[in-house]
Amino acid sequence: MTLEEINRLSSEDVETEFLKCCGSTRWAKQMTEARPFTDADHLLTKADEIWRSLSTDDWLEAFRAHPKIGEKKTATAQSPEAQSWSAQEQSQSQQAAAETKAALAEGNLRYEDRFGFIFIICASGKSAGEILGSLNQRLANNPETELRIAADEQREINQLRLNRLVDSSASK
Q: What is the DSSP letter of 36?
């Protein structure tokens, strides 16, 4: 999909496309209202501005649209394209040794018990060991700090997925 196509789509259709990038309905709606985008930098800058302006509830809504690291199922419905992107982003964790996968699963449970939301990390390009290390390190954070870190990880995911959305060769 091109930037021109994003600018021309109906509000309903482009909102659906934006929801593939980020599960926050408020973010997708505000991105839709921010059109037209003059270039990719404008799109990405606006995405960050909108993301940072959202409430904790909006962030948590976006987090629920992700599968836990090492899993494929999300708490909320996910489009086939978003499922594919999640699988690509987590591909290295899927190839991990059984012990690492078990440690990730156990860490996911401890994290969710501690913070009340799933562990969010921009996993693209990270090994399962790196992800597990980050998870264990972040378990020591206080809840406010961790929410901010998770939100910034989601912001990175948004950027990655927006780039995929406007590059049709990368989104297939």
A: P
What three-state secondary structure class fits 142? coil
Structural fold of domain 3-171: UraD-like (1.10.3330)
Distance from C-alpha of 92 to C-alpha of 126, rounded to nearest angstrom:
7
Q: Which of 20, 66, 68, 161 is catalytic?
A: 66
3-state secondary structure (DSSP) of residue 170: helix
Tens-level pLDDT at each residue, the chain (172 residues): 999 999 999 999 999 999 999 999 999 999 999 999 999 999 999 999 999 999 999 999 999 999 888 776 555 555 666 555 555 555 455 567 889 989 999 999 999 999 999 999 999 989 999 999 999 999 999 999 999 999 999 999 999 999 999 985 443 3
70: which residues sit within 8 A by CB, 6+ positions away?
90, 93, 94, 96, 101, 104, 105, 108, 128
Q: Is 66 a catalytic residue?
A: yes
Q: Do 74 and 64 meet the contact criterion of CB atoms below 8 Å apart?
A: yes
98-115 and 128-138 are packed helices; what angle lies between their axes, rounded to 10 degrees? 30
